[in-house]
Amino acid sequence: MAKNNFMLKLICGSAAFIVLLFAVSPVVSIPSYISYASTNLPAEINSTVNSQQLESEYTLLEDVPQPLLLTNKPVYDKYTLQERKNLNLPLGLPDFTYYYGEKTVYLTFDDGPDPENTPAILKILKDNNIKATFFVVGTQVEKTPHLIKLIFDEGHAIGNHTYNHIYRDLYKSPSSYMSQLAQTDEKIKNIIGVRPRISRAPGGSSGSFTKAYWDGLKYNGYIEVGWNISSGDASSAKAPQIVQNISRQLENKFLWSHAIVLMHDGRGHNETVTALPAIIKLFKDHNFEFRVINLETPPAW
Ligand SMILES: [Zn+2]
After folding, report:
1. How far is the CA of 262 from the centre of ligand 1 (A)?
2. Residue 17 included in any domain
3. How much distance in Å is there from the Cα of 136 to the middle of ligand 1?
4. Does residue 102 fall inside a structural domain?
């Protein structure tokens, strides 16, 4: 009898455990290409869900391509490129429509995350209630995983800026370039459970990309993101000069239908941090809408 009781308890206990497992497991993924993070977080993120993460929605690319809805949310992929290949899933991008607002600005920061500048920039963005885009370098991702998580949690977009940013490695061949993108994607996915589908070539694509690079990006489903306003913060410019550089290019409305502003949050770019509040004010004073870069962002040129 004692043994039967024990068996009964064991069976009931197991059943309760299984029911509990279902109750706390992530929402079962529906076979659509797109879903929203708040209802379909990757397992590793869902296990640590908090209110801050629930606020930061993004569009998630899944299995079957469907036209993309206009969202002003970052776009991430549930799968790495290799996983897509292994699972025989489409590598290309779903259909989408470019977003053309009357006055749109995309603030972008390259070469981070940096332990000093990136948190300072995130604080300024939060104080101003705006979202931006960070093109991150793989070697920095390895050093500062907590900052990748913070950028993601706060609803900004993350783009791939290659693994080591060393031109002679990157531009040796299209396959070297693609393998650096894949390498950085893996690092990012290990931290936040998803990977970007937007990328930016170090030094810019012009002069570095041949047709084979563009073909490789298209085949593997990456959007290359340029810029049409340069802050000039890569030199030794001081904050007032950086603001003035942007302001001057903003007057040349014929140069852009939407402003994609190149800045840097990498090491040594403290002047960019100092300039940022004035840069944001400049665009706010001109009634710009701040957006994150996703598949709907029109090309810079
Ligand atoms: Zn760069």
Report:
1. 10
2. no
3. 8
4. yes
Distance 40 CA to ligand 1 centre (A): 32
Domain that holds residue 269: 34-290
Q: What is the pLDDT of residue 211?
A: 97
176 CA → ligand 1 middle, Å: 17
In a domain, 188, yes or no: yes
Active site (catalytic) residues: 110, 264
Identify the CA nearest to 92 among candidates 212, 201, 222, 184: 222
Confidence of residue 212 (pLDDT cuts 50, 70, 90): very high
For residue 39, what is the domain's CATH number? Answer: 3.20.20.370
Give the whole-angstrom CA distance, residue 286 versus residue 104: 10
Query: Closest Cα partner for 300 from 74, 133, 166, 178?
Result: 133
Question: How do residues 223-244 score in pLDDT, each as one tens digit?
Answer: 999 999 999 998 789 999 999 9
136-167 residue pLDDT tens: 999 999 999 999 999 999 999 999 999 999 99
Neighbours of ion ligand 1 (CB under 5 A): 110-111, 202
* CA atoms within a 13 Å half-sphere pointing along the CA-CB vector of 214: 8
Say how many domains are in the chain: 1
